[in-house]
Fold each of these.
Amino acid sequence: MRTEFIDVDGRWGIILNFNFTEKDEEEMSAIMDSFGMARRNIERSMRILFTHNSGMAVSRDDLRMSAIFIGEPTSRSQFWNSIAHELRHVSTAIIDYYGEPYNGEPAAYLDGYLLQKVVEEIAEPCGE
């Protein structure tokens, strides 16, 4: 599994996980557990994440942290589609935590900033 940590100006952290296999299930489960997910939800999430073009984001306000899991993509563009989708969930959690409007400029800037940070961290996402 490849794991990258994205620091959002010291105000929020994102653990991004991708290129995982079933041998990473224990580590993935531990991350989900640390975010307070119930065992039943972790098991359901695992079944989903081991399908193509899947993803999941979970956030904890008290930690100001999010975790993103991206399942195996069928293409490079699908990988980025899944990243953008899950980053939107994280952006919504951050915007909600800081009490900003969802349709305002801070939210739009945050979306772009998060994607920029991910692109900076991930040069070659799919081993290409």
Amino acid sequence: MGVHYACSRCHHRFTSEGEPEHCPNCGAGIGFEIEGKGVPLPMRLFGGVVAFGVGALLTGAIVGRLAG
């Protein structure tokens, strides 16, 4: 069972037993992402911070409109 990769250039998904040298679709030699790992914790935390900021901004705007 090989590791699943996605090419960053053409987004082609393929499986390789070892470290791939080239994308079988476009021939790119670098930029392969390992698939199936899920969303990393730092990206989830950043998304939470952004969502909280947007929520606070909208709440402040609504309260400001109602008060003034």
